[in-house]
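Please study the protein below:
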Amino acid sequence: MSLNDDILKNIVATNSDTAVVDYLDQHRGKVFSSTGGWFPGKGVFSHGYSMLEELVGEKSYFQILILNATGKMVDRPLADWVEAIYGCMSWPDPRIWCNQIGALAGAARTSVIAATTIGAMAADSRTYGPRTRLEGVKFIQGALKQYKMGATPEEIVAAAAEKTRGKPYIVGYIRPIAKGDERIEAMEKISKKLNLTAGEHLELAYKIEQVLIDKYDERMNINGYVCAFLSDYGFTGQEMYQMFAAMVASGVTACYVDTYKRPPDTFLPLRCDDIDYQGPARRAVPD
């Protein structure tokens, strides 16, 4: 452990001003990285790997993406699985909220990078996008602990229903527009093709889904599936959040390009009388 690591642990343990000052003094005028960096004449490194000798041309882009996001080097089949999920999450439909921002940006003639970045930021939501992995993983990993202690899937769902005093709201199991999720079937085919087997989290996720089908006519969505599947491969919710930071980017870019080719400022036009104004009535302005 380095001196800087010792100081950082002291900050966490004591939360003292002295520890903070010591840490800042050690870093004064210097840039530190525990991930890697570029050393002119020697190479570029990420988590102990030489990028130009061990990664570029040797590992897939998604293996490198997962390494940079989590510090874990995964086998190619699992990286290909994550790449397939990215494809499931990047639909070129301008009605989708983050894509709509990309489309508006194209109509306004911003740069493609600005449009894609803003669209990706719009997906960073507690109800939609990569942030939901945090709650989805918290649920399924907690549910598995309960299951191993003797709770049944029915009891796990009942506990969730009790919290909402009615129909259970479980992140990963409700879809606002449609029931079920066609992407799960597609990903199951991918999993089979890549010889990636289901583990205990995903097996429980399907048992919970069956309870929801029988009692509430609800099914698992792609978020619940991803959280359970990647939990079986040892990922935390925070790691999944980091891995999927740019998952909607391709769809946003597609919607930007679509409107950029059209006349400017023509996406989703509205007339004044399209607005349902419900404020104070029209009134005269005093002289």
Observations:
- The radius of gyration is 24 Å.
- The first strand starts at residue 36 and ends at 39.
